[in-house]
Amino acid sequence: MEVSMSLTVTPQLVEAASAGELTDEAFLDCVRTSLPFAYELVERLAAELGPARAAGSDFTAFDGTPPTDSAGGQLLRAMASTSIRSALERHFGVALVFQNCHRVGMFGLDAVGGEQYRQFVSREAQVLHQKPELVNC
After folding, report:
1. What residue segments make up the domains of the chain, in order of their start?
2. Residue 101 and residue 74 in contact, taking contact as beta carbons nearer than 8 Å
3. What is the pLDDT along the chain (137 residues), one digit of tens a residue?
């Protein structure tokens, strides 16, 4: 039986998880080392959010193509996993929204449910941000 993994876990991490003693810090360290592109992208968006908000926007976004297929896979795994995405949100104090592997948005928690947030997560935005090259991302 083949085992699929989103994260590269150490025996110590497995032991901590089995004992119910896995901390957010240890989990995030695993995410950071296993999915470096995704972690660094979220970290960069978090750094950009303050200036974006000061300029009148409730969010910042990655709107591009990951540099490699591996990086795209990292981003997809990070955003598709509720536990990974939630840990990143708690760590950075933000809300992450995901349209596809080429469009990730970050909102301040107080902006969730606001007009820009509703527009970003709308079905119209989903349709308008599709490109033929994203069919198999």
Report:
1. 11-132
2. no
3. 444 468 999 999 999 999 999 999 999 999 999 999 999 999 999 999 999 999 999 999 998 888 998 999 999 999 999 999 999 999 999 999 998 777 899 999 999 999 999 999 999 998 888 777 655 55
